[in-house]
Write a structure and sequence with these properties.
single chain, alpha/beta, Rossmann fold, 5-stranded parallel sheet, 12 helices, 5 strands, binds adenosine monophosphate, binds magnesium ion
Length: about 325
């Protein structure tokens, strides 16, 4: 479990710039969810250690060393159903407060290999949210108009408004993933983008948009099983894309690209979480719990009521 010493070392001396001080404030706030169980959860779940999936800036990960089958002591789906429902309820309550507060917002980035479960996560984790306070954006190959702008343009336009939760199903990270693997731009161009992405997310954070990013980590074997089941089951045919078979040939290149994106862009203010995702039910639980903890650490407040409500009589 994290201790105080794991929190980022933040200098607040008087000669730091205004920008650095603002960044430090945002970072302290974000860092509080490194140990959320201590402050926000009354009844501890079996192993309350979800922040371990958070990638720390000073500890780069190696994807091949992370087990996509991990599921703690939970044996099967039915063991987590109650706990998942509890986390969904937490998210619903906190979303209502975030919406009412109307000051800050949350941006959730979902990335994965094909069949990794982005759509399933959206369905199962966010199903109960108030649609009025939530938007899902799915990013495909850029349109001509989008391609005529800087690479961040289309993402920035869809950053959440105050009070909202936005989910990016694929994101600005595609511009260092597919774009890198398929050599859609020169190396000098995509290499520069890690830094630009960090700056972009920093700017969002300083503008009261909390940014968290999930990589749903599946194995190559699991992808094979999922593709096969899309072929076998007529009700899943619509999900099958022969492009996924082509992309599968680049599995190793994608893993390297993900690893670099995660290691270069997991910052103290906008962390990456690598979620074991071979077991869909465990993936849902980890994502739900992490979002609930993040919202809880933001601690959104209902705005003050009008003065004198107690004197109003409805006739
Ligand atoms: P899907 O999410 O399965 O509908 O597929 C969307 C496709 O759009 C994927 O093949 C992505 O690789 C592709 N895509 C998303 N963003 C970009 C981008 N910035 N540049 C090129 N291709 C992209
Ligand atoms: Mg697809």
């Amino acid at each position: 479990m994290s201790t105080q010493s794991n929190l980022p070392n933040i200098s607040t001396s008087s000669n730091t710039s205004v920008t650095e001080q603002a960044a430090a404030r945002a970072t302290i706030d974000v860092a509080s969810e490194m140990q959320p169980e201590k402050t926000v959860v009354n009844k501890l779940p079996p192993k309350p250690d979800y922040p371990r999936y958070r990638v720390r800036p000073e500890q780069p990960i190696v994807l091949a060393a992370l087990d996509p089958n991990e599921c703690e002591d939970y044996g099967k789906k039915k063991h987590v159903e109650e706990e998942l429902e509890r986390q969904r309820k937490r998210i619903q309550n906190l979303q209502e407060r975030l919406y009412a507060e109307h000051q800050r917002s949350l941006l959730i980035v979902l990335q994965a290999m094909d069949t990794g479960g982005k759509d399933g996560t959206i369905k199962h984790v966010f199903g109960g949210l108030n649609p009025q306070g939530c938007q899902v954006w799915s990013f495909k190959k850029p349109s001509d108009d989008e391609a005529n702008h800087d690479f961040l343009w289309r993402y920035h336009q869809r950053a959440p408004q105050r009070g909202m939760i936005s989910i990016f199903n694929r994101s600005h990270y595609e511009d260092v993933l597919v774009v890198r693997v398929k050599e859609l731009v020169a190396k000098e161009v995509w290499q520069e983008r890690y830094h630009l992405i960090n700056e972009f997310e920093h700017m969002l954070t300083l503008n009261n948009i909390r940014v968290i990013k999930f990589f749903l980590h599946i194995s190559k074997d699991e992808q094979k099983r999922r593709l096969e089941s899309r072929l076998e089951d007529p009700s899943k045919h619509w999900k099958f894309s022969s492009n996924d078979i082509k992309e599968r040939k680049y599995w190793d290149d994608y893993q390297t690209a993900f690893e670099d994106a995660i290691n270069n862009c997991s910052t103290a203010y906008a962390p990456w979480y690598v979620v074991p995702a071979n077991k869909k039910w465990y993936r849902n639980l980890v994502v739900a719990r992490t979002i609930a903890d993040t919202l809880e650490s933001m601690n959104p407040q209902y705005p003050p009521a009008e003065v004198g409500l107690e004197n109003i009589i409805i006739e």
